[in-house]
Amino acid sequence: MNYYFPIKHLHVTAVSLSIILFLIRAYWSVTGSPLLQKRLVRILPHVIDTVLLTCGVILAAMIGPEQPWILTKIVLLIAYIGVGTYAIKRGRTPRTRLIAAVCAVAIFVYIVGVALAKSPAGWFA
C-alpha cells in the first residue's frame, strides 16, 4: 500500500499548525505577553515540529533525497529555525524580535514555494 498521500497530508497539516503557532508565539514575544511562558505553549511547538520533520524525512526517503529542491528545503529550514529562535527567544528587543519574525515568515513562504514548484527557484520557477 502506498502511504505517500496520507503522509504528505499529515506533513501539510503539521506545516499549517506550525506556522499558525509560530505567528501567535511571535506576536506574544513582540508584545511581551506572559502567555508565551505557559507550559502547553512551550511544549506543543516541539510536538508539531517533530511530526512535521518526521513526515518530511519519510517523504524525502520516498521521493529520493537527491532531488535539488529537497536540499533547498533543508537549508531553508535550518535558516528558518535559526531566525525563528531570535523571533521567539533570543531577540533582545521587541523590534529585533519583530524583524526576525518577518524574516522567518519570508523564509517560510519561500519554503512553501519550493515545495509547490518542486524547484529550488520556488515561486520564481
TrEMBL record:
Regions crossing the membrane: 12-28, 40-63, 69-86, 98-117
Keywords (A to Z) from UniProt: Membrane, Transmembrane, Transmembrane helix
Gene Ontology CC terms, in alphabetical order: plasma membrane
Domain of life: Bacteria
Name by which UniProt lists this protein: Regulator SirB
Organism: Castellaniella defragrans (strain DSM 12143 / CCUG 39792 / 65Phen) (Alcaligenes defragrans)
